[in-house]
Design a protein that fits this description.
This protein has 135 residues and is α+β, with helices and mostly antiparallel strands. It is 30% helix and 26% strand. The N and C termini lie far apart (32 Å).
Amino acid sequence: MISKERVQELVDQAIQARERAYTPYSKFNVGAVVIDTSGKEVTGCNVENASYGLSMCAERTAIFKAVSEGSDSIETVVVVGDTDGPISPCGACRQVIAEFASDDFTLILANLKGETKVMTKEEMLPYGFSPKDLT
């Protein structure tokens, strides 16, 4: 289990990533930190586009960045946004997270008020579609 101090450290990193978000349309900044199974940490932020469907969420930005840098399994994802309760990933992000999540995966949801929620992959996406379903 991740200590409260470590969770706060990761949330702080995600808040810093959030500050780099490109959100001229929604003004809704989100930041994320991904830790792969080797301990490498990668940050990401959401990036919007005038063609809204081409926008990218912070979680997917961080995961795709980690994969492009050699990661193949994710141990932890931290997401933070300015929401009433801890932010929740969209369905597309949940599916991408599930694709790369390790067996011992942890998802940490947070907001700017200091509230957090810790979840497993199964809690995040029960009955999720996975590579195992393709065999």
